[in-house]
Amino acid sequence: MQQTQWKTIEQGIQRLREMAVAEIVFSDDINTRNPDLVPCTPVMWRKLVRLGPQEYSSALAIMKRDETEETVLDMAKKLRTYADAVHGPTHARIAALETQVRGLADKIEENHKELKQDILQISAVQVRGSGTTRKRSLDREGKGIPRAKLWSFLRDCGENMRRWDGESTDAMTQRLHELLDGKTVRGSSSKKEAAPVTQGNKDNQA
Predict the structure, then answer these.
(1) How many alpha carbons lie under 13 Å from residue 49 in its C-beta half-sphere?
(2) Taking the model in full, what pTM does it have?
(3) Which stretches are annotated as coiled coil (predicted)?
(4) Pick from 85, 150, 198, 205: CA 20 to 30 A from residue 180's CA?
């Protein structure tokens, strides 16, 4: 008989029945034609253990004692009981994990919908003027704006940074708000306001 390896418990039971059929054919001591009723000999069982997966070998080796008389059907029942004990909890854990994954997927989908609504609301607010948007951003950040960033903003707006040396962060934030609102009261902005007056004087002199 071909020594075929088996991987699952059901395949192992099938191999055991094939051995029983061989016993029926070649042994004169077997009085039955039913493979399940053939006595499972120690030789048959050791061969079954040897052909099976290594992970089962230890448990199967002690499953049958040499002195006990058990049929192939008896050993098939033991094998199935062993399979249920080993794989039953695993299947239960897998089913529980699948349930958790489905719940997590539903939660993610719900969060995506909420995030999409938030983005649409933010987009509706941002259709207003860019200066207003920037000012609102500053209002939200408040004192959280780093001083170095405030310094950079004021410098980019043309401020004379010497006068801001030593000034508080709140004062710098307020000045930036004024610049974003179009108010000009100090620094280089004052020079820009004086330019039209100078041009008017030139016209009068002409």
Answers:
(1) 17
(2) 0.42
(3) 94-125
(4) 198
- Residue closest to 1 by CA, chosen among 41, 48, 42, 36: 48
pLDDT digits (tens, 9 = 90+) for 13-59: 999 999 999 999 998 888 899 999 999 999 999 999 999 999 888 99
Contact 112, 60 (CB under 8 A): no
Q: What sign results for the dihedral spanned by CA atoms 33, 38, 43, 44?
A: positive
CB-CB neighbours of 153 under 10 Å: 19
Residue 71 pairs with which residues in a beta bridge? 39
Residue 105 and residue 70 in contact, taking contact as beta carbons nearer than 8 Å:
no
Angle value at C-alpha 49, between 48 and 55, nearest 5 degrees: 135
If DSSP codes are grouped into helix, strand and coil, which group holds residue 152? helix
